[in-house]
Structure formats: structure tokens, C-alpha cells
Amino acid sequence: MRESADKGWFWLWGEAMYRYRRWVTGLWAAILVFMALFAVQAPGQFKDNGFTPKGSDSDAGMIALQEKLDFPASNFILVYSSDSRELTDQEAITTILNSLKPLEELPYVAGIAINPATRVAGHDHIQSVNVFLKLTTDEALDKFTEIKAKITAPDGMKVDITGGPPILHDMQVATKKDIVKAEVIGLPIALLVLLLIFGTVLGALLPLIVGLASVTTTLGITYFIAQGYSLSNFLPNMVTMLGLAVGIDYALFMVSRFREELNQQQDVREAVAMTCQMAGRSIFFSGVAVLIGLLGMLFIELNIFRTLCLGGVLVVSLSVIIANTLLLSLMGLFGHNINRWNVIPSRWKKRQQASHLWSRIAYSVMKRPVLLVVIMSGILITFMLPVSDMKLGLPSAGMLPPSYESRHGDDLLTEAYDAREMNPIQIYVEAEEEFWSEASLRQMAAYTAKLRELDGVKEVKSLLAMLEDRPLEQAAALLAREEVRSKLEEEKLASDRFSLLIVVPEDDPESKDTERLVKQIRELDAGGLEVKVTGGPAYRLDMLDRINERIPVVVGFVMVVTYFVLLAAFRSVLLPLKAVLMNDLSLGASIGIVVAVFQNGFMAELLHITSTGYVDATLPIIIFCVVFGISMDYEVFLISRIVEEYEKTGDNEASTAEGLRRTGSLITSAAFILIVVVGSFIYTDIQIIKALGLGLSLAVLIDATLIRIIVVPALMKLLGRANWWAPRWIRQRSHG
């Protein structure tokens, strides 16, 4: 028969896994026990949010401010509120500051000060305090518990701790909770579905073992990587989501094929080898397709993309490796016993096997292919429409639910203070001479005047403003006094040749007008001064620029490389092109729905989502790169089976119907499991992970229903024999 005559590399690999099945199983058991010890500690090692555009003008400016003007490396913001009294009078301020005396005694606390930003009228029941630290963000996270223990709210007040490190701390807490919550929701349902699919306990448990093994091993590896490299705290969620989804799905296809081969091959050894030859080869190419999408994130120079790429590549690679090593070995050990411990009556399984529903659907679709392709394309394009109105924003405390302290404190700050002063444009200025000299003051005065003339500038704060804009001669004379210089250095406004300018914009810090203002400032002639524009609006612009500039490269790389991988897998020119284009449609539709939910608030309450009025700037790329390969899985498995049938019969329509019949129930079940596992992350706490869970679930749902059941058979019919055309050198290549 053809299967035994064509023993390629995958057959030989499967045979080797059977031969050494006990050794392979024992080795993996030792690896998993070792990795599990470190996997549980891994989430606490990831302390970077990953959004800093390192090497940009804004990043260089902030580093210079820290080095030259002694800006604090990190800070906490304490937000006090009261239901019974005003907190803006001197008595309340004194009470608050006195309560912070124990905190002030800590050696790494650089200073404590009442927030000077302009207040919003009618919010006198809210007060905030800046706590400046001589610690990096990582060090501040390590000291978080000690710092929090020193903070107690005075009688009649409540205090919330927010700012960079507290938000990261809460995200670490949320990450650990999210992983447990997703597993508690997703795994029992996945097990139930697997029991219904296979009808046996062993058949159902093997895919779960592969999913959990890939997650455990990946988290263990990243624990060691985190000792030397800064990794984003979104990594554990990404690894858990992808590992469970992909690991279970790949194992599902392998176990299903193995049970089929047990009835066709002479013994267990050949069944394992044939399973690897066919299903193992399919998941290898599927895994490569997923990896291509993930590798696309490397083109964007932000740590969140690099980290998610690392985690995704590791967990998907390990899912493929574990399925083609540990799983094959376990199937070799269990052999026919995999069909023992039935939980579903035999007559039900016979009825399922005898079903020709999927082939009838395929023939029905192929009777009216043009109409159905037009209708399905129209539906998918309609789902894509919200993308045209997508607004991008930067991640903040809003990523967390209001129940988290740092999010609640941030909400109070937004409510009580002018956002423009809380998040201004900061300009690091370096002169040739000390800023106490008249020449440097003259340069600063000229540059400040230019800034004030720009459209969109509400106010410019500098050392000159502190000197009440005196004539330069008087200002220079005043700066000759040591106490005045000390005051400026204490206020972080000037020191030696270095100074700080603060530009308060007229518009919201996250608006397009403020983006334009940052660009105008950077283009402005500084008149001999060296300047670097930083602060929240500049960071936001630099981050968005890095993403937007590389989007065409990312999309082009993923689509082109995926096409050539599928070209090698299918040995056809049109089949991979069709798969890539259909995947773009389903992916665009899922992103459109994500925009409708997260930006526009559609069904947000039902999904326990806080609509922010924008989409996180990282989300479109993350969803595209993560989802592109995974959502294509089912089309790859379906077309692989159609190709297999066509090589036997040479009949396009019959091969399409038979391919859908043989994979229909299995792909539907696999898609349902993936949707349940990934969809469980919609009900977790971190917004980016919720959005990724929603986007991936929708893409898989669309791909496994509209694309697989309707579009694929319709296009197979329309293209006819053209589906199978390929240059001679491709057709002559043997199977892997």
C-alpha cells in the first residue's frame, strides 16, 4: 500500500519514538518535574510592562533627566479620598504628611510631596502625594510590600497606591489569578469535550497532558531567561493561552489519527509511525505557520513584542515537539489500551463514524459556489468595518479592572486633576555653559519664547518662570546666589549645564493635536541648545511610530513566508494563496469585532469588559501575529486531508467532500476546545489578554465555520483542476 511504500522522515521518526518509547517517556517525566519547580515561580520574575520605546528620543531624554537632574528612577502616587471631609485644607495636608513619616524614614525614599497639578473643581475630597524613590522599577517592585506596610490612611480617609510600580505589581497579581481562573474554566470543559470525542478516559487525557506539559516546560525555561533579561509581565498569560490551545489541538489530531491507524495497520509500531507520517507532518507545518506569525513581532522594537514572540515561539515549538515525542511514545506504550475505559456507549460512536453529514454539506455548497462566496465575503467585510474607525491608545492602569487598588487610584487621579498637567511634555535641555550664565539664560529665553508661540501650547514652565521672567541681567544676578541655585536643583529644574522645560498642552495628552505638538517641538530650532523631548505624550508618539512604521513589514513577512511554507506542504500554487487570503478576511473580521467591543462598548458589559474608547496600540499587531497561524490551523488540516484524498483519486469534488467528511467532526470539536480554552481568558482581568482571547476565539470560530464549511468547498469547486497546478519541480518533491 502507498503508506508503507512511502516511508519518509516522519515515518522513521515515529518508528524511533515507538522503539525508544520507555526512554522518551522517562526523560520527559524527569524534565517536567524539574521544570514544574521553576514554572510556578516564573510569573514573579517578569517585571517589565514592555512598552518603553528604548533608544528613542523620549527614552534618551528621560534617561538624561535621571542622570543629569537627578530625576527619580521610579515613584508611587498615594491617592487619598474621604466621604466626610475636604482634603485640600492645610490641616488635612499636614495630617496626611505626618502619617507618612515612617515611609519617609526608609533609606531609598528620595522625597515626599503633595501633587502640585491643577485640580478639577468640585473634587476637594481627593488629595494625592508623590513618593519619589531611589530605586529602579524592578527594585521598587521588590520593595513593594515593605513600602505598602508603611502607608496607613489617617482616620476618616482611604488611600489607594498607584503609579508605575504599583500598577506592575497588580498586573503580576492579576496574571497569577488569570492563569488559575482560565485553567479552572477551560480545562474541565475541554476534558468533557475530549471525553465526548474519544469516548475513552486515556484518549481524553493525552491531549491535556500535552497542553499542560508545553506550558510547564515553557514557563520553566522563561524563568531562567528572566534571570538575565527583562521580560514583559504579559508573558505567562500568553504562554498559558497558546500552550493549552495549541497543545491540546495538536494532540487531539494525533490521537484521533492514531486510533484510526490502529484499525488499518498491522501492529502498534506501524500505527505510531503512520500517525507521525500523516498527522505529525500536518502539525509540523501548522506549527511552522504559527511560528511565522509570531516571528513577525520581532520587527517591532518594543519589549512587549519581543517577549510575547519569545514565549509564543517556545510554547508552540514545544507543543509540536512534545506531540511528536512524548505523545507518540505514550501512544506506543498504551497501544490498543487507548480504547479502554469507555465512557460513551459503543452504539453512539458507531453512529458518529457512520455520519455523512459533512460530505452532504460539501456537495450542497459546491452546487452554488459563486453565490456563497459572495455572501460570505460580504459578511466578513461587514465585520471588518469598525477597523476603519479604530483609535489607538497606550496601555495604562485601565488595563486592570476597577477592583484593583492601582486602577481605582488612577481613576481618582483622572477625576480630580487636570490630565494635561499630570502628563505634560518634558524637554531635557543641555547648554554649552552653566545655566547660571547670562549666555545660557539668553538661549533659554529665546527657545522658551518659540515654544510659547506654537499652536496647542497652554503653558511653558522653566527656571525662567520660577525667576518670574525677570530681565536676564537680574536673573543672572539672582542665580549667582547659592540658595537660589539649590532651590532650582531641588525642584529638578536646572543643574550645571542641564535644565528642564515643561510644556503643558492645550489638548488631551493622548490627542492627535498633542501628537502634532510633540512633532513641532522636535522640529523647532533650539538655537544652540541640545534638546530631547520626552514625557508621556512623547513616549506615546514614539511607541505608536515604531508600531505604525513596521506594520507593512510585519504583515508582508507573515503572509509571504506563510505562503511559501504552505506551498511546500500542499505542492500547489493556488491552495496556499487561497488559504492566506481567506485567513486575512477572518482575521480582519475578528479584529473588527474586537474594536467594536473594546472601543465602542458593544456587549462590553456582558463580557465584563471596561470600554476605554480606544484600542490598545499593541493589540492589532499582537492579534495579527498570534492569530494568523492559529486561525489557519483548521484550513491547513482540512486541505491537507483533501490533498491526501486527491493524491489517491484525482477527483477534485470527491476529494473535497471526503476531506470535509473525514475532518468535519474532529475539526469542529478541536475548534470548540480551542474557543473554550482561549475564550476563558475573556473573563480574566487584564484587558490586553481579554482582547487577545476574544480575537483568537472569534478568528477560530469564523475559520472553523464560515471559512472551512462554506468558503473552502466553494472555492475548491470554482477553481477546479487549477487548485492542483504547480511547477514541475514542486510536484516532483517527495513527501516529508
From TrEMBL:
Name of the protein in question: MMPL family transporter
PROSITE patterns given in the database record: SSD
Protein's membrane topology: Multi-pass membrane protein
Keywords from the UniProt entry: Cell membrane, Membrane, Transmembrane, Transmembrane helix
Organism: Paenibacillus residui
Pfam assignment, any one: MMPL
Sequence intervals crossing the membrane: 20-40, 179-198, 204-226, 238-258, 278-300, 307-334, 369-387, 551-573, 585-607, 619-643, 663-684, 691-716
Subcellular location: Cell membrane
Domain SSD intervals: 204-333
InterPro entries: MMPL_dom (IPR004869), Mycobact_MmpL (IPR050545), SSD (IPR000731)
Main localisation: membrane
